[in-house]
Amino acid sequence: MIGQSKRWLLVACCSLILLTACNRTELTTSDGRIQLNYWVLFGGGDLSYMQDIVTSFNESQDEIYVNIVLQDFDDYYTKLVTSVAANRGPDVAVSHAAVLPELVNQGLTVPLNDLSQEVGLDFNDFYENLQEAMQVDGSYHAVPLDSHPFILYVNTELAEEAGLLDDDGQPIIEETPEGFLNFFQEAKEALPDKTGIAIPTGGLDVYRWWWTIYFQMGGTPIFSDDLTNPDITLDEEIAVEAADYLLQFFGDVIPMHMSDPYENFQSGNAFSLMTGVWGTGIWEAAELPFTAVPFPQLFDVDAAQGGSHTLIMPIHSETTDERQRAKMEFIQYVSDSGLDWAKAGHIPSKPEIVESQEYQDMPYRSDYASISADVVYTDQTIYQMSAETDMTRSLDEIMAGRLTPEEGIQKMINDLEITIR
After folding, report:
1. Which residues pair with 66 in a beta bridge?
2. Could you give the CA distance from residue 244 to residue 399 in angstroms, rounded to a whole number?
3. How are beta strands 306-307 and 272-276 bridged, if at all?
């Protein structure tokens, strides 16, 4: 099996002649401002909030102008690798934290340690787990915008009807493995015509849920700490136990093979939904009666699954100190705009912003913000994206009943071995 990073390089090498559509903007505007090209992969409400931040930056000063460029999510990283290899990449780009080690290993990003000091950006201002996720081989290569953990959404009208809300309007969940399952079983008994949990039988949300349970059970990292030559350190026994726990929900409170969990929840046909915090802005806009809560700690360890949107500075063979500083000033501005970015539902990357009264006054967000410090980010290896595919596919087989948890986790380990060798 060809690793993800190798596939990207192969595509990049084969696509250099097709880059006429990726031309960079002019270096300056007609009025002499430094002009920067900023690539994003956001959709839906996320995009509009980021557009507002960029507009605010452009209006805040008269020396730098940023063009926001939306790229299609499905082939975003392929386009990014290809364009940077051809020296036609963006000046600043969004990257998920999980992808950062692969981009760094390919030599596509600028280390930010010195540049951050020039503009007064201090990485110690970010959550500690985010600081660690931004470092590859001892250098910072990205600035975090947020954390977006896996959380629980509950339809409050349905929960009230089922008698499962407390006096503060929050779900009454006993934070034990049995209590969590019982919560949804009680909802299903009270609301037999409603879906207990809107989540697909397979895919990323099941992977996120399994990841949460695995690490709450005390699971070890998936890989050893080695960028290009890791060992698999996944705890097979705990991995099986976590998959077995999830399996109890399927076919009972979770119907098999649900086609559109989001539509199911938004239409009022589902009691709850488990997904990332980006749903908050969606349900607000839809004026849905809901509450958003952290995934409860059901086992011994405080742990949550989540990712982070980050900003990177792709390399350019010809640039100037002035342009590099301009890029860093923009990155700093966006990282400081956590309150505006939080409107989409994401948790700001700086505790200072999360603890501010302005953030605490925002509905829903403060209810789950505490989980940010517990997010277990992916390992620093170039194989993470391929590994995620391996793990997701194995979990799909387990939840669909085609493999037992023992068989599925063994398949997961076998596939991971193939991926990294």
Report:
1. 36
2. 9
3. unpaired
Interatomic CA distance for residues 32 and 27, integer angstroms: 9
Check residue 26 and give its pLDDT.
Answer: 76
Q: Supply angle C-alpha 223, 351, 361, rounded to 5.
A: 130
The per-residue pLDDT for 317 is 86
Question: Which residues are 65's β-sheet partners?
Answer: 35
pLDDT at 25: 53
User: What is the reported pTM?
Assistant: 0.91
> What is the pairing mode between strands 135-136 and 139-140?
antiparallel
Q: Which long-range contacts (CB under 8 A, 24 or more apart) does 182-189 make?
A: 184/249, 184/253, 184/271, 184/272, 185/252, 185/253, 186/162, 187/158, 187/159, 187/162, 187/253, 187/271, 187/272, 188/252, 188/253, 188/271
> Which DSSP letter does residue 109 get?
B
pLDDT of the residue at 354 = 97
- The C-alpha atoms of residue 291 and residue 367 are separated, in whole angstroms, by 9
Architecture of domain 150-305+379-420: 3-Layer(aba) Sandwich (3.40)
| Percentages of the chain per state (helix, strand, coil), in multiples of 5 | 50, 15, 35
The structural domains of the chain, with segments of one domain joined by +, span: 4-145+308-336, 150-305+379-420
Q: Which tokens belong to 201? A: 């039988």
Closest CA to 195 of 150, 242, 260, 245: 260
Nearest to 86 by CA among 17, 165, 184: 17
Locate 343 and state its tokens. 């409107």
Among 95, 189, 105, CA closest to 143:
95
Give the domain 4-145+308-336 fold: D-Maltodextrin-Binding Protein; domain 2 (3.40.190)
What are the residue ranges in the chain where pLDDT is below 50? 1-24
Token pair listed for 392? 């997701």
Residues 176-181: contacts with CB under 8 Å, at least 24 apart: 176/298, 177/245, 177/298, 177/299, 179/298, 180/296, 180/298, 181/248, 181/249, 181/253
> Residues 6 or more apart from 284 whose CB is under 8 A from it?
363, 364
The candidate with the shortest Cα–Cα distance to 50, out of 161, 122, 146, is 146
For position 228, what pLDDT does the model report?
95
**4-145+308-336 and 150-305+379-420 have identical folds:** yes
